[in-house]
Design brief:
This protein is an alpha/beta fold. The chain has 2 domains: 182 residues, D-Maltodextrin-Binding Protein, domain 2 (3-Layer(aba) Sandwich), CATH 3.40.190; 104 residues, D-Maltodextrin-Binding Protein, domain 2. The chain contains 13 helices and 8 strands. α5 links the parallel β4 and β5. 46% of the residues are buried.
């Protein structure tokens, strides 16, 4: 949403001009944290947007080298694990007959949340117990599968607005798990991140980007109807406008660039051996800026 608003209102260009720069902005859409991470490391993109799970993977992988860290959060919003199998009420009910769609198996934030939930239920040694049931499917395709009941996919660890669309369209679809429950409260699932080199070599562009996203967060909070229109325009979306507005005005949703409740996932990933470095504080995996002072 924040990137959509920035694109729609040319906010990065606007703040670039305030820094004395003429910034040309290119937006590229990739599916899954693994693809996003590879694009950042290859230099195909300057700033990446993906889940906090892929960020921890790349932060760990590039520590003391490219030193990838997060720039800003994109807000707090829940991710729902949805199933159409009436026998599945909790994650303990999944069987070999179920297939759970995620953007990237074992790497995406949805997959990481499911691993964290598994560890909470069965213990750290069984954190990847449900990995074998996961399949990598882009959100639009997975949502279509949940709505139609026409494929092997019986569950989807989703995000807005796809999860709300599926729940509204298929009476059999129900929530099995809320990411807020896994994290112990509202948290930041998606962040924007970059390399230390980009930040160091482009300080004015970096400042313009942070200012633009911060303005977009303020706009989304204060003007949800206009934010919804920006989302629809940028994505050429056919989503029901009333449904979208309901999502934006949900008490579970908060648009802010300050991260919330992210550290526990990183420490979990270290504890089970998924990453080699243990994040001790938010300053380990976020670039230090005033807006993260209140983050967690």
């Amino acid at each position: 949403m924040l990137l959509n608003i920035a694109q729609d209102q040319h906010l990065i260009e606007k703040h670039g001009k305030a820094e004395g720069l003429d910034i040309k902005v290119d937006y590229q859409q990739l599916s899954g944290g693994a693809a996003v991470n590879e694009a950042l490391l290859s230099g195909s993109v300057d700033i990446a947007g993906a889940g906090i799970g892929p960020l921890f993977t790349l932060w760990d992988r590039t520590k003391d080298r490219q030193n990838v860290r997060a720039v800003v959060a994109t807000g707090q919003f829940p991710y729902y694990l949805i199933s159409t199998n009436p026998n599945v009420k909790t994650i303990a009910d999944f069987s070999d007959k179920d297939r759970i769609a995620v953007p990237a198996v074992g790497v995406s934030v949805q997959s990481r949340f499911l691993q964290q939930a598994s560890a909470q239920l069965w213990g750290d040694k069984a954190y990847n117990r449900l990995d074998r049931l996961q399949v990598a499917v882009p959100h639009p395709d997975a949502t279509a599968a949940i709505i139609s009941n026409g494929t092997e996919i019986s569950a989807h660890f989703s995000n807005s607005p796809f999860q709300e669309q599926a729940l509204a369209a298929n009476p059999k679809a129900h929530i099995v798990l809320n990411s807020y429950t896994v994290a112990g409260g509202p948290n930041t699932p998606v962040v924007l991140y970059t390399t230390e080199k980009f930040r160091k070599d482009n300080p004015r562009t970096y400042r313009a980007f942070v200012s633009a996203i911060a303005e977009a967060a303020q706009f989304a909070t204060q003007h949800p109807q206009e934010a919804a229109e920006a989302f629809i325009r940028v994505n050429k979306s056919k989503i029901d406008r009333t449904l979208l507005l309901k999502i934006l005005q949900s008490p579970e949703v908060k648009f802010t660039v300050a991260p919330q409740n992210t550290l526990s996932l990183g420490q979990f990933l270290y504890r089970v051996g998924a990453i080699k470095h243990n994040p001790v504080s938010i300053k380990d995996y976020f670039f230090e800026d005033p807006h993260i002072a209140s983050g967690s």
